[in-house]
Amino acid sequence: MTEAAAIWQFRDDRGQVSSADRWPTKVVAYLQAGATLWDHGLLPLGVFGSHHDGPVPDRAKSGRLPLGEVTYFGGGGSLDPGRVLSSGADLVVAVSYGGGQVYGIEPDAAKHLEAQAPVVVLDVGQERSLDEIRGRFAALAASLGGAEPPTALDAARERLRTAATGDAPRVLALSPAGDRVHLARPHSWPDLRALTGLGVRLMDPPAGSGANWSTVGWPETASLAPQIVLADTRANATPLDAARLGTARVIPWNPELPASHAAHARFFTQVADALTAHGV
């Protein structure tokens, strides 16, 4: 089909144009993308996870998506592209962390899907700002007939900026991993960079080889003496034993937030609440 003959088309973050001779209505999306589309009023047919995910969808990554109303196709090596295609899917929405590589699907499975159905890939990696990521998902949703209701993102952003004073608590983002802990490098995560841009005092972990994380032991983590901890709540993270962090206030952190005004407003409000409560 030529682009000129297409009823629907969209240029993704690889620069590739997906097109169809009818409006896509049966969308299968990566969990983060599916939750984002739902925030724009679009219920996907199904969702899939990543190599980190198991036989059920990760509730932490699913936002407000009504999981009982969508099909879960697994993730990583367990995702069967034939099952996705036989579901009648007429659009697949995936994410990338750079270089256009599809995240969460085996390369051969991704190629098989793309040979049979339109595949849109949106970049959520460290080269993009939170605003840019949100804008790209909004553009995709608009092309599919979706629109996000008005939210209080601007108010949440200003409230956080007010709470993040010069003497505000030190904040550390981390992902527990049993006897070890992955400390997030703030510059590598669009949501954490957004926090620092609003004045939040996010702590840089020790230097090391990891691009996104610095992996250390719990004693070293505790020695950093964070006052607030953003703790990864995804299913692949170990449940946090807060006692390891002394008196630090712990709040949940989803590194794969839905890319919507509503989800980002909730995140900023949550951090602002923690900063404000710490001084009470």
Automatic annotation (TrEMBL):
Domain of life assignment: Bacteria
**Protein name (record):** ABC transporter substrate-binding protein
Q: Which organism is it from?
A: Streptomyces enissocaesilis
Its lineage opens with:
Bacteria, Bacillati, Actinomycetota, Actinomycetes, Kitasatosporales
